[in-house]
Amino acid sequence: MKAVKYFVVIFFSIFCTAICAQNVNIGAEITAALENNTYLSKLNYPKSVFRFYTDNYSGYHWTDSRQRQEQSKIALLLLTKADHYGLSLSDYHLEALSLEKLEQWGDFHSEKNQKERTLFDILLTDGLITFINDLHFGKYNPLYQKTQIDTSRINGFCADEILSIARMRTDFQGAILKAQPNLKAYSDLQTYLDRVHTANDRIVSQTEIGKIIINMERLRWINTQSAYYIMVNIPSYTLELHQGDEMFGFRVVVGKSTTKTPVLESEISYFSTAPDWRVPQSIFRKEMLPEMMKNRSYLADHNYSIYDGSGNKVTVNASKLRQINDNPNNYSITQSSGQENALGAVVFRFENPYSVYLHDTAQKQFFDREKRALSHGCVRVENADRLAAMLLAYDGAEYKVSELENAILSYEKRDFVLSEPVPIIITYLTCLIENGKLILYTDIYQFDRSLEGKFNQNR
């Protein structure tokens, strides 16, 4: 009996030694490959791949045993469905990855085709990291270059960490897909595109699929993850207030093609009633000065006041008007609050480098037009008072709604500060899903062609 026990101990000692030695060899094989420029040149995110292996033991992760192959199969199938997510199949090394090749390495102890096996494992890792980054940031993000995404954590996001966490989850695929934007417009488009591909629906044209792809890309550029946000879509002339599963829509006026409303993200922390309008210098010089020179009463008729460079109010007569016309940059113009004020009864301000904001308007008739690219860049909101009241109510300050209404009626200047800022997204989407149907919008600023060209080159 002792002899049997002794044999068992010796056997397992030899077995464990062999396994440990093999693990060392496997680790060395991966490490050597990640230091080889031939391997690295094939990768989209070499630094992320290196971090993934060094942080999770630098051995095989997708070809090390049959137990792991179920997860590896899910990974491969996910990459082969990249087009269901508006992405290109050519970006994920599928020319070198397949289920048939994966089956070759089901036996943990096999030494067959070690270099090919190493390359397969590394390429699958890079394919998944690329897929995660593309889902989250998009492929052509104007804010972040690929090298920046590969090098540093951006807004708390790191694809190799997402992949490491996903491998420990029961729902591996679900953990990876959480990298996608948490925006209703995005999930609607993705669901629609998935159905088109799954059903092989030829009713939807390639042109329409192309529109879906570029607009999903634009939505990936948005960083906001909150379920509470304001989204302005320029081509549809709409503003949506999202509060969890609820959405409230408003019509808007946006910038003309010559004075485009910019795409941006920010936060609304307060809004004001009875605002004065400090006229931008470009509007002052190009539009108002000619009117002032033609009509002496133009300023008084519209409640405008002129100020010099020191901020002193200027009395305008014929002589002064000539001075202003000769040196307009030395003066500024402000419109007082009231019925004629261009900002209307309420303005929503937020930090941005373009000096734009949301506001009410005295020109309510513009909201009845189908095409509403009419402003100098700011966004005019129909029923802005209703939007302001809803923001107060959601902020837990419903008791201030009556104060807001009174301030609007009496043209009283008041600032209403929100305890929790509201994310605001101004975006450019030329298609959306409404009631399960794809709706296309006019590309009013002609932005689509450039982005479509980039995706077409990558097919």
Question: In brief, what are we looking at here?
Answer:
The protein is an alpha+beta fold. The protein contains 17 helices and 15 strands.
Give an account of the 3D structure.
The structure is a single chain. With 459 residues, the chain is of the alpha+beta class. The chain has 17 helices and 15 strands. The chain has helices at 2-34, 37-40, 46-55, 66-80, 99-103, 114-137, 146-151, 159-167, 172-177, 184-199, 206-220, 281-294, 298-301, 318-326, 384-394, 401-410, 448-457, and strands at residues 228-233, 238-243, 246-255, 264-273, 277-278, 304-308, 313-314, 331-335, 346-350, 358-359, 373-375, 379-381, 414-427, 431-434, 437-440. An 8-stranded mixed barrel has the order 1-2-3-12-10-9-4-13. Strands 5-8-6-7 form a 4-stranded antiparallel sheet. A hairpin with a 2-residue loop joins β2 (238-243) and β3. It is elongated. The model is unreliable at 2-25 (pLDDT under 50).
Secondary-structure-based class equals alpha+beta
Provide a count of the helices. 17
Query: Spans of 5+ residues with little confidence (pLDDT < 50)?
Result: 2-25
Widest beta sheet: strand line-up? 1-2-3-12-10-9-4-13
Oligomer kind: single chain
Draw up the topology in text.
Elements: H1 2-34, H2 37-40, H3 46-55, H4 66-80, H5 99-103, H6 114-137, H7 146-151, H8 159-167, H9 172-177, H10 184-199, H11 206-220, E1 228-233, E2 238-243, E3 246-255, E4 264-273, E5 277-278, H12 281-294, H13 298-301, E6 304-308, E7 313-314, H14 318-326, E8 331-335, E9 346-350, E10 358-359, E11 373-375, E12 379-381, H15 384-394, H16 401-410, E13 414-427, E14 431-434, E15 437-440, H17 448-457
Helix pairs in contact: 1-6, 3-6, 3-8, 6-8, 10-11, 11-17, 12-14, 15-16
